[in-house]
Design a protein that fits this description.
Pectate Lyase C-like; eleven-stranded mixed β-sheet; single chain; disordered N terminus; 18-stranded mixed β-sheet
């Protein structure tokens, strides 16, 4: 029987075709069967070499004038022509397996598991959220995401010890209509967690096909945040591209020891409340460096240190107010964001903050310390007792080496200083394009001492309560504000 099959392989060519197609379709790019990517080209080639249709397409050697796919040549798997076809069919898949398979020896890849080998689709059609969450819950927390389009119909829930390494062309995108409720995000920690690391990939909130709803205070509506972290420690997000959130790109509360590095922010739908990095209460020991906003992003505050906020608004659902301290922000660039840094303190202190190396253009203020006086939902009324001697508490905040401008002039200042400061120090600040308003505007403070220096010119004066002071020099060396009680 074996001899007859070899002499007439056409007897079961259709079986080989069916087996090859089944192996190809079953894997669907996931490689559930490790050998499937070898089996299906083998079967398809067998069918090709025994099919009259294929044999009818002659491939003639110019030297011998013989058909390279000769019907009498039964050693088809070992002929140069079919070996070449087999190599071409399997090379892309072999490359995927070698480049993104279960890596064990590559630099930085030790112990990572390829999610495509563990059931993820990565085809942009099937839901991968359930697969990824199942892997994390089962203890397989070191995951590698190769190039692909991972559609998430639910939140990717990150537990302690989760490490995700994504190819730069791996895109994780929220499915249309996936962000409906207040706990719907692209990714978040489900409960208190620590030692979470994410590196690489494109993370897309798909704002065009999701909606926050019209009611800003609807308790059932989504906050619209792309990532939301509360109660995390030792978190690292690096080398990522963040795209198209409904609201904040990154949101934090009660978070400690966080590294945000080499991040790109981009949105095709710019709108208000689209902060880049938003910190709520009790955030400590943050390092935020090497961030880049492109195409007008972020749409609102690039980095918002909001120790106080309106907690009944959608974007602040499940956040709390409180102290922020020990924060380093450096090397921040935007083509044209709304505001570079907001320091929002009314009752909760912001302490020990260093901000340096800010470059690019802004549509509004560059450094905003207005205590949300001009926001849609203010945190206090101008006549409230709390505002009589100013509000807020900034302590040991240092800002240096700032180079900013505007593409269109406005009446807004580049620095709005309307928050009481135990010590606020700004050094080496330059405006690179004309502005319709002052560079620095100081108002609504308790009694403060103001030290200002530009070149050989210096000023040292005491401001009475709620006094106003403005500086219009396009560059200055030093500005220091200190409350005098």
């Amino acid at each position: 029987m074996k001899q007859k099959v070899l002499e007439d392989p056409g007897r079961f060519k259709w079986l080989m075709l069916a087996l090859g197609l089944a192996a190809c379709l079953f894997t669907n790019g996931r490689w559930n069967i490790p050998y499937a990517f070898w089996i299906w080209p083998f079967c398809i080639l067998f069918y090709f070499r025994t099919s009259k249709i294929i044999r009818g397409l002659r491939c003639v050697c110019p030297e011998t004038q013989k058909d390279l796919f000769c019907e009498k040549d039964r050693s088809f798997l070992f002929s140069p022509s079919t070996a070449g076809l087999f190599f071409l069919l399997t090379l892309p898949r072999f490359g995927i397996i070698m480049a993104s398979g279960n890596q064990s020896g590559g630099e930085g890849m030790q112990g990572f598991q390829n999610v495509r080998a563990l059931g993820a689709f990565g085809d942009g059609l099937h839901d991968d959220a359930a697969v990824l969450n199942r892997l994390i819950r089962s203890g397989q927390k070191k995951l590698f995401l190769p190039c692909g389009h991972y559609l998430l119909r639910g939140t990717l829930l990150l537990e302690s010890g989760t490490e995700i390494l994504a190819d730069e062309n791996a895109c994780l995108q929220l499915a249309p209509g996936a962000q409906k409720g207040r706990r719907d995000f692209l990714a978040a920690n489900g409960c208190a967690a620590e030692h979470i690391r994410i590196r690489g990939g494109v993370w897309d909130g798909n704002s065009a096909q999701n909606s926050r709803g019209a009611d800003l205070f609807d308790p059932a509506a989504t906050s619209g945040a792309l990532f939301s972290f509360r109660g995390v420690k030792h978190l690292s997000l690096t080398d990522m591209k963040l795209k198209n959130p409904l609201c904040y790109y990154l949101r934090f509360c009660e978070a400690e020891d966080v590294l945000l590095e080499n991040l790109v922010f981009e949105s095709e739908d710019l709108h208000i409340n689209q902060d880049g990095v938003h910190l709520a209460g009790f955030c400590r020991r943050f390092t935020i460096r090497n961030l880049r906003g492109v195409n007008g992003s972020p749409g609102d505050d690039y980095i918002a240190l909001n120790a106080d906020d309106c907690l009944t608004r959608q974007e602040s659902f499940d956040m709390i107010n409180g102290l922020q301290s020990e924060i380093l922000i450096e090397n921040i660039h935007a083509d044209e964001c709304h505001c570079f840094v907001r320091l929002l303190s009314v009752a909760s202190p912001i302490e020990r903050v260093t901000i340096r190396n800010i470059t690019g253009c802004c549509r509004g203020t560059a450094i905003n310390m207005d205590a949300a006086r001009h926001c849609r939902v203010p945190l206090f009324r101008p006549g409230d007792e709390i505002a009589e001697n100013g509000v807020g508490h900034l302590k040991n905040v240092r800002i240096e080496n700032v180079r900013v401008g505007r593409k269109q002039a406005t009446d807004e200042p580049f620095i709005a200083a309307e928050t009481n400061a135990e010590r606020l120090e700004i050094r080496d600040f330059q405006v690179l394009s004309p502005s319709g308003g002052p560079v620095v505007a100081i108002s609504d403070l308790a009694p403060h001492r103001v030290l200002y220096q530009r070149g050989q010119t210096s000023l040292d004066e005491s401001l009475p309560p709620r006094a106003r002071r403005a500086f219009t020099d396009p560059a200055f060396d030093t500005l220091i504000l200190e409350i005098t009680d």
